[in-house]
Amino acid sequence: MKEDWLLFGHSHMDTAHAKDLLGEILNNGDIVRRSFIPSESYKSQGLAQWDMLRDEMMYFNRWFLDVVIDEARLKQLLEMLIEESLPQRWYRARIRTDDEELTIDKMGAPPRRRSSNGRANPAGIPYLYLGSQPDTAVAEIRPHTGEFACVADFTIPNIKAVDLRNPRKLVSPFLLTDASEIGQLRADLPFLERLGEELTRPVQPSGAAIDYIPSQYLCEFIKKKGFDGVVYRSSVSDGINLALFDPSVAVGGGVITYNVAKVSVLVGEA
């Protein structure tokens, strides 16, 4: 339960205390001492289908795809990843290229003809990318030391956004009443985690036109199913990001200019 559903995750809740607590909840101390293995009757084709679809749309077919995924099941899974407590204030940053201060009307999503490929949007279809904190927003634009970053704050209303940061933490088996539904949800968790990885995978600018295709497809699917945006982990900081499908719902506030005093780099062997 700790691994599959991230239950009993408190720092003081070790395995022994978790067993005691679960035994009290179930009013059965013997059951927590038994060994269980997952049932092999529950399997998920989602992960394998996604890998095949990903490969096809990147390297073989772009618009008319042969690989078919279970759209109804995917929508059902995404409905379980709605974050109800998103902050209302978010931030967007731009590098100041001259002495002119950027005003709030210049800090929103770019015009359609100037909208390039992004992690969530295809070229020509602008979304509004926002960070949870000013430093998160600045990190996303990959500044150099000594540059000036203009950071605007935006207020967004209550929206229906899919949160792909940590599916295991957000989904709950207690919302389901049928044992078979719980078993199938457990089998689908690796698939949901892979979808979250699509939005956080580091991408080089030179390969963005191809490498962003899977995450763009995923976000367009999410948009077509009636969701307002996608929340995902930042690949360049510890913060979180929001891709808002309809930029017009965000209300701009003020703009503050920051000096980029230091940029940190962490390297590892390839």
Automatic annotation (TrEMBL):
The organism's place on the tree of life at top rank: Bacteria
Domain annotation RES: ranges: 103-256
InterPro entries: RES_dom
Name this polypeptide is given: RES domain-containing protein
